[in-house]
Design goal:
This protein is an alpha/beta fold and 435 residues long. It folds into 2 domains: 110 residues, Immunoglobulin-like (Sandwich); 252 residues, Rossmann fold. Helices cover 32% and strands 22% of the residues. The strands form 3 sheets. An 8-stranded mixed sheet has the order 9-10-12-11-13-14-15-16, with helices on both faces. Strand 11, helix 6 and strand 12 form a beta-alpha-beta unit. The protein is globular and about 65 Å long.
Length: 435
């Protein structure tokens, strides 16, 4: 890809997102350029094809079970039934659920205990297929569950091709697909490079990182989980100020890490599937949700699916922060002019089908909804008054404002609102209200 095209992508992002992305671009222009190189030096055409494959992905969900003394790590490999090429893999440190998000196709799943940690399947290592093996036919948007792979002391099968993850050109080495994996907020996977990758090349992000709902500590049934959902081009690292200032004796932060370039409705579906799985495992009776920027849109999509379509009853409070409820007009410019079309930009174009769909159902009074917005930003290029990225008209969209249990405005810009003492004071007060 020529640098001038990368620059055009960066310029559009800066015009579109204002301070939110501009600060990242200004500080990490070289890193963003490297992001495209890490995609295997793909051409614009191949990147577009890559993105199109993930517009209606399939979800493969399963679990590793173990009756042998081996402790792992466990490597789960998904490969094409036709070509025997590895489509994706994940490394699990213990028997636990796994999730793959893949283009539609026909797949087989092979797993092994990597006893010597060399990322290569050796014939003396415990191994097994899903089934015998069973072909998995994954259709667009289909969720395939209950892909159990068990290990015993005698579990050994032999794939028809060499499984050497070191030989892969992409070398994803990704993290477990969410579902409660415990991570450090200082982990490199939350770097600006990978956050930008999630916006521009979501398919590569999925292969390298995986994403999903991540824990910062072991689950504690005596603490209320708070789910934090970042915005466009962001990561859970954006919430670090919150993580350090909420009462960790009463609350446990969960964070949803996702490639923000994917269609927002699909991201909402992904989040709903993971939260339902976590609820089946832990049976928590309360969950609070906090979303920044388009993370607020994803959160509302999730709440509608979870509470109203699936009739779950544990989501009690929802906080939206600097969310463009009526969309962003500059998204139309980005969707039409960018060399690589970003699906989420189309979703937040004013009047989009996605924006209309998330207001077809009112979430209050069943869920308490607190709307936070900023009113300090100067904006870039075509920005109107607001926080520099989201206009006042969009942040205070009438349909959102009418539903809000309470509305709070702050003299902060789009990113500064996540670093505000005033915001945290009110936020913490609301967390414990009626607790």
């Amino acid at each position: 890809m020529k640098f001038k095209r990368i620059f055009l992508l960066v310029w559009i992002a800066a015009a579109f997102f204002g301070g939110c992305i501009f600060e990242t671009v200004k500080k990490d222009m070289k890193e963003l350029a490297k992001t495209f190189k890490t995609a295997g030096k793909q051409s614009l055409t191949s990147i577009k094809q890559d993105i199109n494959e993930f517009r209606r992905p399939a979800y493969l969900k399963g679990t590793i079970t173990l009756t042998s003394p081996d402790k792992g790590p466990f490597i789960v490999v998904v490969y094409s039934d036709a070509t025997r090429e590895i489509a994706d893999f994940t490394i699990l440190n213990s028997p636990q659920p796994f999730l793959f998000i893949l283009p539609p196709g026909e797949y087989l799943i092979f797993a092994f205990v990597d006893a010597n940690n060399n990322r290569v399947y050796d014939k003396n290592e415990l191994s097994n297929f899903y089934g015998s093996p069973d072909r998995i036919i994954a259709k667009p948007s289909q969720v395939i569950k209950d892909l159990y792979i068990g290990f015993s002391e005698t579990s050994r099968v032999y794939p028809v091709f060499q499984v050497d993850l070191n030989a892969l050109a992409d070398k994803p080495g990704k993290y477990a697909g969410g579902q409660g994996t415990i991570v450090s907020i200082d982990d490199n996977m939350f770097s600006k490079k990978y956050a930008a990758m999630g916006l521009w090349i979501p398919s590569v992000f999925l292969r390298k990182i995986g994403g999903g709902v991540l824990f910062l500590e072991a689950y504690d049934p005596d603490k209320i989980p708070i789910l934090f959902v970042h915005g466009s081009g962001g990561s859970p690292k954006d919430w670090d100020y919150f993580f350090k200032r909420i009462d960790r004796r009463r609350f446990q932060p969960w964070c949803f890490y996702y490639p923000s370039g994917l269609p927002l409705e699909k991201i909402g579906t992904w989040l709903n599937n993971e939260i339902k799985d976590l609820h089946a495992r832990y049976r928590f009776n309360r969950l609070y949700v906090t979303g920044h920027s388009i993370g607020g849109l994803v959160s509302r999509s999730f709440i509608i699916k979870n509470v109203f379509e699936d009739r779950q009853d544990y989501v009690k409070k929802f906080f939206s922060i600097a969310t463009p409820w009526a969309g962003i007009e500059r998204a139309r410019f980005g969707a039409e002019r960018a060399p690589v079309s970003v699906s989420s930009w189309k979703d937040i174009t004013p009047g989009s089908g996605f924006l209309e769909s998330i207001f077809e159902t009112a979430i209050t009074p069943k869920v308490s909804f607190y709307l936070f917005y900023g009113k300090k930003g100067r904006g870039l290029l075509f920005s109107s008054s607001g926080d520099g990225a989201v206009s006042i008209e969009s942040a205070l969209y009438s349909r959102a404002q009418m539903e809000a249990t309470k509305t709070y405005g702050f003299n902060e810009d789009h990113t500064g609102i996540l670093l505000s003492e005033d915001v945290l004071k009110i936020y913490n007060d609301l967390l414990i209200a009626d607790d």
